[in-house]
């Protein structure tokens, strides 16, 4: 497996669709369906207002989104939580504080989630009043194998802008070869693909998540010889990258109950 930001030596939308955490009654199904081979990936990065973080409004926002897991059908896997680390200049400039990662079996499932009244109400009541900015990207996984996400998994997210003249399918082909050459280094599994929601993505054309069993596993991949060789395969195609990391929270059955709102 290759991690895109380490592979990218670089200098340097309205909130409409947000991801949620599964309820206890759906935790087992969500864990299984997070491993589907070609999920639709949905990522939203949110930068909350400083006063929202200090007042507890940001925590209430997260709780309100988590509470939607029992109200909105079609979610295969959901996580919402704080960013662990910003790992590129582009990520630091954007400054997201929270990441929402969800998966759907089909694009219509994602569209139905976006339009669901409970989701719309949560966004209007809790997200819009507390967010300074958001960035979102959606893709259909083009990797050959599933990338299951479990409680405690550490995830490295990379959003890429391509060099002029490079097509997304070319990068997908190179990434497939690179990840195979890296031998899924350190046990990581990847999902990557071309963004199909450009209006909300601030120019990022391609997304990738690399899923590790733990933060220690994620840290160990940097400097791995096979990964370094794999980076060289994709580096010539890339113009800019936003990279950050987050840790998936406990299964909903183990998580604290949402706060009363």
From TrEMBL:
Domain Stress-response A/B barrel: 40-139, 154-246
SMART domains the UniProt entry points to: Dabb
Record-linked InterPro entries: Dabb, Dimeric_a/b-barrel, HS1/DABB1-like
Gene3D superfamilies documented for this protein: 3.30.70.100
Pfam families xrefs: Dabb
Lineage: superkingdom: Eukaryota
Subunit structure: Homodimer.
Protein name: Stress-response A/B barrel domain-containing protein
Organism listed in the record: Oryza sativa subsp. indica
Lineage: Eukaryota, Viridiplantae, Streptophyta, Embryophyta, Tracheophyta
